[in-house]
Amino acid sequence: MAYRNTEKAKNEAVEWALTHGMALKQTSDSARHPAFTLTPTAIEKQRFEHLTSSVHLLGKLVHAVSEDAHFIHHAISPITTGNIFFRALLKMHQQIHSGDEPARRVPLLMMRSDFMDDAELGPKLVEFNGIAAGMGPFGQRVHELHDYLTVQWPSPYAEWAGENHGDLVENKALEGLAEGVATATKSVKDHFGDEGRPTFLMVVQDREDNVYDQHLLEHALQARGIRTVRRTFRELYDGLSTGENHRLLLDGIGPIDCVYLRAGYQFSDYVAHDIIDVACCEALSQTRVMIEKHHVAVNATVSQQLATSKRVQMLLSSASAEYLMQFGLNEEEAQTVKHFLGEMIAVDESSAQKMAEDNVENWVLKNQGEGGGHCVFGEDIITKLNKLELHEYQAWALMRRLHPKPRTQPAHLVRKGEIYVVEDLISEIGLFTVHLNGEPVVDNDGYAGYLIRSKSAKVTEGGVHSGMGALDSLVFKGD
After folding, report:
1. Structural domain boundaries enclosing 290
2. Coiled-coil stretches, from where to where (predicted)?
3. Cis peptide bond N-terminal to 300, omega within 30
4. How far apart are CA 4 and CA 161, in angstroms?
5. What secondary structure letter does DSSP report for 474?
6. Can you give the pTM of this predicted structure?
7. Could you write out the DSSP letters of every residue in 321-363?
8. Distance between CA 112 and CA 430 in Å, rounded?
9. How far apart are CA 76 and CA 306, in angstroms?
10. Count of domains in the chain?
């Protein structure tokens, strides 16, 4: 094949991505494409169908856990001495659930469950993502990009794909998430029966660069007759009020039916230096508490954020299937969930010694942070463990490291407009589910599409936004 055809196919792929909103903001008036693969990752059809038909059980479990205020309090309390952010979250949780006024919010659980398909153990959960569980729209877009390449550039695609040249695995994550949000938004609107369009509020970070993924979801909601509004916590601080029957009102907008938090998972989201009457973080955290005191669909509730923490994941992973049944799972469902939960252990004063005696490469040390940059690998684990104070132990956990099989041949990905060949590409599979008040609100028991992020096996930070990962999609393995 002539080199210029390969180069032209790549250039058109980049242009397709930018044309279809698969982009990250670079400056106030420019954008760049995120890294993406030129061909999808292969998966066995039976394995994929097992994952997608079972992942709703994780949504069912997390919802039940999040609504058990007693469990949440006892699970999170031990880490508050070593993690001031979770101390603040637990305080919010107590204010929402322990006061005279009940928490009237309707919990909308839009969760992404991230798996790695270990070569020996099979698919195992890496983490729950219950707040700011984004990039579903990008997941659908890169699937559509791969489909575009099969039609427009079949020869370069076939050469890049090699034996992975099979049937693409449909991904309707954008439509699935939009349908779930629209259902929740309209249900609250119908409850009040007032006039006007249903209104969806997205709480965002100031000067964020990952905005196009968010706008794709907004555009899909607008196409379904829903008005969308974007505000930071600071902008909401003095803009929210209470209407009749605990209706949430936003100044200049009117009634709000659904609130989706794309912010709130780090302390900086609650900082406002211009508020001088009370501590800035306290003021903006009270805005979040106020929202949950109203009859409005909310993702993520404070309860959901705590229930999807690494701390709770560790407790659930360490529990028996019989114990998991207290959260509404039958025996078969509990066994299925137990199979997905990988090995996690608490950190204590003997952990450094255990890691020294074991092969430290078999483990990952994790704190409670969301997003990239919160995992420790290799010999750095022992160094970090030796530096931890006693009161910090509970805020960390050790997770057995997973080792997926790399692609069987070199993979081609595009970063900053250039093709890079990766010899050992591995993938993380994120499956979206949507539940409203514990009930699935999209077809397939709440399954709402997937997100594939792939990286070299040598790379530890695999995020598309903050690491060395690339957007990817799936193709079924041939017989």
Report:
1. 3-162+169-476
2. none
3. yes
4. 18
5. E
6. 0.94
7. HHHHGGGT--HHHHHHHHHHB--EEE--TTHHHHHHHS-GGGE
8. 6
9. 7
10. 1
